[in-house]
Specification:
By secondary structure, the protein is of the alpha/beta class. It has 18 helices and 27 strands. The protein has four domains: 116 residues, Methane Monooxygenase Hydroxylase, Chain G, domain 1, CATH 1.20.58; 153 residues, Polyphosphate kinase middle domain (polyphosphate kinase like), CATH 3.30.1840; 170 residues, Endonuclease Chain A (Endonuclease, Chain A, 2-Layer Sandwich); 183 residues, Endonuclease, Chain A (2-Layer Sandwich), CATH 3.30.870.10. Strands 14, 18, 19, 20, 21, 23, 24, 25, 26 and 27 form a ten-stranded mixed beta sheet that branches. Strands 10, 11, 12, 13, 15, 16, 17 and 22 form an eight-stranded mixed beta sheet that branches. The longest helix has 33 residues. The termini are far apart.
Amino acid sequence: MQEKRNYGAPENFSNRELSWMAFNERILGEARDKTLPLFERVKFLSITASNLDEFFMVRVASLKDMVDAGYSKPDIAGMSPKEQLKKLNKATHSLVSLQYSTYNRSLVPQLEQNGLVIVEKHEDLTEEQAEYVDQYFEENVYPVLTPMAVDSSRPFPLIRNKSLNIGALLCKKGEKGEEEFATVQVPSVLSRIVVIPSKGEETVIILLEEVIERNIQKLFLNYNVICAHPFRIMRNADLSIDEDEAEDLLKEIERQVKKRQWGKAIRLEVEDGVNKRLLNILKEELDVEEDDIFKINGPLDLTVLMKVYGLDGFTHLKNPPHEPVEVLEFNKDEDVFTSIRRQDILMHHPYQSFEPVVEFIRQAARDKDVLAIKQTLYRVSGNSPIIAALAQAAENGKQVSVLVELKARFDEENNIVWAKKLEKAGCHVIYGLVGLKTHSKITLVVRRENDGIRRYVHLATGNYNDATAKLYTDLGLFTCNEAIGEDATAVFNMLSGYSEPLNWNQLSLAPLWMKDRFLYLIEREKKHAKAGEQAHIIAKMNSLCDKDIIVALYEASSAGVKIDLIIRGICCLKVGIPGVSENITVRSIVGNFLEHSRIYYFENGGNPEYYLSSADWMPRNLERRVEILFPILEKNLQEKVRHILDCQLKDTLKAQILQPDGTYDKIDKRGKVLFGSQAFFADEATKLVKEAKKQVTDKRVFIPETKPEGAEEE
């Protein structure tokens, strides 16, 4: 009798955190790709730095908390928190080394060749440049600075999370006493990039910390400055909120967000060649371990490169911006409700405009027949038109209910501001559910019409953020399908009260039964394969790390199901395991836009089913968040979704393929047609709109000049 295979054995899984590191390395690969426009490479390097900051503040911080608490339970790959930290430390130091090698050896020289000179050390300034920099310091910087000395009467200051600082060792003039420590924060209210006037065509810049360091003696007039070096710390920013004990969730999150600035220091960045005594003072005062000190050969905090990317005069070194095109299904001569009644409408952002979503709320706010608007908000932009429309709707007497997720990481402060504004306007605001994040993207508009009440629903894979909708690839569906409308009402009743329906029509919700639904759909494909029927799964998501889902995929693969996964980030599944995952392929697409949509396709023996969702295949999405899985029911829209998946599966330009050893390889382009799915979607969307407008124009060309009296224009 054949031995039953243990699909859940630790060796069948990759560690989540190391998989994330591999993802950030793929982004760094874009910064190193010489076929990309130079400033796009600069942008990608900035993104790797921003990603690494967040990773440390949350994931590394969480692992350190586990170790401090004596928690030693292994993850699905069999690694304890201590083992994970050890491997992560090695991987992070390697990544940072590659970041700065890319910056120093590749980007800086090429930027200089293309007219952007970065003065890396203030000692390298010409006499004329130095004169300008010193004057700039006197007039703009000096009045803002607050030098902080440390002595018996002045304790070591609290250093804010992620702030850039300059530490200095001082000695009183005329005395031979012990060196004293002082620090000054590089003010974030001033631009970190200082442009130095140049007589030539080149642009010359110097970073603000170099300007301060050059003039630091002026801050300590009675002292000699022995040395000065920039440093930066990362703190634990993972909020710990006991929601059951919190009397007021809004106030508790406000309090915790403030504490984030002063969490335990978990990473210290210092300038390479830093004075040893200065470093020891920082290490001791900040209580940082040796492994968590990063000696940097270049400017600290490479997120500044996003500001470099924004400099004027270098458009020719960037990708041409894509302008989202209009959604043709919406007729400008009619209201959005008429368009949605005609047909379900699927939108593909950012190739198509996000404006119909904003207009949907705006028109609902003004429409005399609209009775209620209900919406979940996870992340919105800084000056959100959707928030303004919801506030107007409440002021117009509509019943407006908004769930604002206060626990949306690093958007808590922003969401608190919006929540208060909406309450002030008269909206009924819900602050999420105890113990769960509400990550679903759903809007319900209830409208009184001639034939009765009709419900209009928008469901999406992305956020209601008009800014990120230009950067993230997402899908959104407008429908007035009666069954989905009933489910949408049930969702909001569940979120606002204690009402959970006995059954659902079309929507699947996490944490209730979405995971079970996915496991059922995967199992069904396995049964089809065993019966010799068509069996194929295509799943596109941000991350895959749920053990139960991965085991189900392994079992389906072993039964002969073809499984194609498109996973941008973390993937704990391993490919190429004999008898386990030989039928599974995994690809990651890292391109100009951030791949954010979640699409799930099941062949179902020749009767394919298509689903979109706000959820990845991760425990947090399936078990600890309110998420929605919704079907695409219309045949023409199913064809659109399949087209998107097929294009991504044939991407040879930006796709990287997961190998059995856990690395990702770019596709060998020799003899292959170069195809980039993102560029294709952008071109396709633009062409479709142009063709549609041309058809309208052509029809008008052939309209007879003489028409019967009273006939209307076509």
